[in-house]
Amino acid sequence: MGIHNNYLKSVLFFGGRRVLWLFCGALLLVVAVAAVRFWPKPPLKSAIASSVAVYDTNGVLLRLTLARDDQYRLWVPLAEIPPELVEAVLLHEDQHFRYHPGVNPWSLLRAAARTYSGGSKQGGSTLTMQLARLLYKFNTRALRGKVKQIALALSLEARYGKDEIIEAYLNAVPYGQNIEGVAAASLIYFGKRPKALSLPEILTLAVIPQSPLSRTPGDEAQARLSDARIRLFERWTKKYPEVREQAGLVSAPLYLRGKTRLPFEAPHFTTMLLAENARSTTEIQTTLNLRLQKLLERHMRNFLTRMRQRGLKNGCALLVDWTTMEVKAWLGSADFFDESIQGQVNGILGKRSPGSTLKPFIYALALDQGVLHPMTVLKDSPQSFGPFTPENFDGKFAGPVSAQQALNRSRNIPAVTVNAKLKNPSLYDFLKKAYIEKMASEAHYGLALALGGGEVTAAELASLYAILPNYGHWQPLVTRRDKAGLPPSQLLSKEAAFIALDMLEKNPRPDIAYAGRVMPLPVAWKTGTSWGFRDAWTAGVFGRYVLVVWLGNFDGSGNKALVGVDAAAPLFFSIADALMATDSAIKAPRLQPLSIIQIDVCQASGDLPNADCPRTVKTLFIPGVSPIKVSELHRAVMVDKRSGKMACPPYDPRFVKREVFEFWPSDLQRLFAYAGVPRRLPPSPVDCGTSYAGTVGISPRIMSPLTGVTYQRRLSRGNDEDGNSIALQAIADGDVETLYWFSGAAYIGSSASGKDLLWKNASSGRHTVRVVDDHGRADARTVTVELVP
C-alpha cells in the first residue's frame, strides 16, 4: 500500500511538472506570436508605390499620375473599397482566406497533383502568397521560389492582420498592362471610384487578376471576360440568391475603357498642385470645377481664333469664388501643348506689369483716408511730381473729372495725384500686406507704381480684387478642399471696399451691343495695359466670382493690339455673360454698410453745394471720414451793367446786377481754351481800394520749378539764350489776373495768370521761390541752381 502511494505521488509530481512545462511553453509561444504581431513594423502601404489622383470639387477625376515604378497604382483604404468587391475577390481567389495561416496545404497539394499528373494547371497560392510575390518580386515557378513564397506568406500572416493583408493585396493586384490595384483599375476601366461600382463592374474587377493579359480591354478579350464574370455571378447567387434579378445586367456587354481615355484636365493647375504635394498624399481634392474650366477654355479658344489676324495667340484666365476664395477655373495658357506659344508655362503665376488694374485700390485707400469721395472733382491736366511727369494713355487731358470718372476712364494723372496723397498705408504698404511677392523697395517704384510700375501675377491680382466684395478682408486663394489658407486680414474698411466696388460697377461696358441694356448682375471691372503693349488685362467682380483675364506673350514681346479695353475686356465679358447665363448659383448677397450715407454735392466741384451751385448730384459718403467743405467754384459777382466789369460798393440797383460765375483755376482755363470748350469767364476785377469782399478763392500752386530737381545754367550762354532760363509757372484761382514772383525777398517779375515767367538771372545756390497773386494768396518751394562752364 505504501509503495502504491509513493508511485501515485511520483506520477503526480512528474505529471504536474509536464503540465507546467506545457503551460509555460504555450505561454511563451503566445508571447512570441504577440511580439511578432505587435512589434513596430512599417505598414504594408509603405512598400507599395502609389499614383496620385487629382479630383475636381465634384469628385470628377482631373488627372492620374504614374507611380514611381511607372505603374498606375492608386492606394485606397479598405474602408473605401466596397465590401462586395472584397467578398467577390475572396470567393474567386481564396475562399478560406479568413481561416488559413497564409498557406492552404490542401490547395497546394491539389494544384501540385493536377499540374504534375498531366492535367490542366491550377494555382494553389493563397492571397497572402500572391501578395508576397507582388511585394518582393521573385520567381515562384521554380521550387525554390515557391518555398520562399510560402515562408514569406507565413511571415506576413504572423506580422499583419487579415484586413491589412487583403487591403495591400487589393492595392497591388495586377489588372493588365501597367495597371495595378482596384482603385486604378476602377478609374481607368470604368471612370469612377471603387465605392461607385455596380455589381457587374465589381465582378469584372474580381475576375481580371486571375488572367490579366487575356481579360483586359480589347474585342477578343470581351467574350472571355464576360464568361468569367457570368461564372462568378452564378457562384455569387448561390450565396446571395436575391441578386438573381441582375442576371441581365451581368450578362450584358460591359466594355472597358483604356488608358487613352484617362483625363488630363486643367494641366497647369494640376501640375502645380502635384509639385506642391510631392506625393505626400495619394488623392488631391481640389476646388476646381471642371464644367467652369471647360467654359473658360472654350471661350479663350474661340476668342483667339477670331483675333488671330491681329497677332493675338496666347492668354490666361482665372476664376475665383470670392465667397470662399476657392479657385474654380485656372487656365495657365491658351494651349498647354502648343510649343510655339510656350504653352506649358503657367501664366497665372507669371509676374507681369498690371497696367492700370491697381488703380481701384488707390481710390479705395483714398476713400479710407478721407482724400476723396466718388464725386470729388480731380484735375486731369498737365502736372509734374518732382521729376516724374505722367501722361494719359491717349496723350490728352480731360480737365475736371469726378473720382469715379477718373477711375473708370483710367486717367493716369488723377490716379498719380491721389496716390501722392496716400499715407499709412501707401499703395506700396497695402500691396505688401496683401502678400504681393518679390517687390523691390518703395523708392524703386515711386509714384509710377500707380501706373503699373510694379509686377503682379494673375493669382495675386485675383486675391486683390476679392478684397472689394469681401468688405475689405484679404484672404489667400484656396486650391484644395483639404487645406485651409491663412486667416483673413482687414486691409480696407468695409465702407471703402463697398464704395470702390460701387464705383467700378458704374463703368460702362465697352461693347456697343450692350449700350443701355440692363445686365443680369452688376459687373465691376477694370482694364490695364502695360508699357510697350506687352500685357492686356481685365479684372472684375460679378455675382460670386472674381475673374482675371490676361492676354500677351510669354516672351514679353509687344503688340499694339494688346490694349486692355480692346483685347482683354471683350474676352472678359464673353466669359462673364456665359457664366451669368448658365450658372444658377452665381448670385451672392452684398449689403451696403449702414455707416455709409448718401448726400448731395455740387456736380461741378464735388463739394457741398453753396447757395450758388446750379446743379447737384448724389454721392456715397462716409461720415467722419470723407472730405467735407463748401464749394467755392460758383461765386456771386456784382457786375456793372454799363461796363461789364465788377462793380464797387455801394451798389446802385439801377446799374448793378448780381451774377454767378465759375472760377476755374488757370490751368483748367488754359485746358478749356485749348480744347475749344466754351467757358463763361468772370468779369475783370477793378481796383475798389480794398480787396473784393465777394471773393474767397484758393491760393496759387507752383508747378515749375520742380521739386527734387537741380537746375543747371551754363556760364557760356547768355541769360536770354534758349534753355538757360528757368520757367516759373503756377496754377492760380479764377479770380486772379496777375502773379508776382520772388526769390527770397528779391523781386523776379510778374506774369499774367496762366502765363509763364522766365527767370533769366538765377544765381548758384538754394533759392526759396515764392509766388503771390493779386489777392495776397501765396505759395513757395525750394529750388537748387548750379552754374556750370
Round the Cα radius of gyration to an integer and report it: 41 Å
Residue share in helix: 25-40%
**DSSP helix count?**
21
3D shape: elongated
Biggest sheet, strands in spatial order?
7-6-14-13-12
Proportion in β-strands: 15-25%
Which structural class do the helices and strands define?
alpha+beta
Summarize model confidence as the mean pLDDT. Answer: 88
How many strands, which pairing sense, and closed or not: the largest β-sheet? 5 strands, antiparallel
The end-to-end distance, rounded to whole angstroms, is 146 Å
E-strand count: 26
Catalogue the unreliable spans: 691-695
Please explain how this structure is put together.
By secondary structure, the chain is of the alpha+beta class. The model is unreliable at 691-695 (pLDDT under 50).
Brief summary of the model shown:
The protein has 789 residues and is an alpha+beta fold.
What is the topological layout?
Layout (H helix, E strand, L loop, with lengths): L1 H37 L14 E3 L5 E4 L7 E2 L9 H11 L11 H12 L10 H10 L6 H17 L2 H11 L6 E2 L1 H9 L8 H9 L11 H21 L7 H5 L15 H11 L5 E3 L4 H17 L8 E7 L4 E6 L27 H10 L8 E4 L18 E4 H6 L3 H10 L5 H7 L8 H4 L12 H8 L7 E2 L14 E2 L3 H12 L17 E7 L5 E8 L2 E8 L11 H19 L14 E6 L13 E6 L12 E7 L15 E7 L3 H10 L25 E4 L5 E5 L11 E6 L6 E6 L2 E7 L4 E3 L5 E9 L4 E11 L1
Parallel strand pairs: 1-5, 3-4, 20-26
Antiparallel strand pairs: 1-2, 6-7, 6-14, 8-9, 10-11, 12-13, 13-14, 15-16, 17-18, 19-21, 21-24, 22-23, 22-25, 25-26
Helix pairs in contact: 2-8, 4-5, 4-6, 8-9, 12-20, 13-15, 13-19
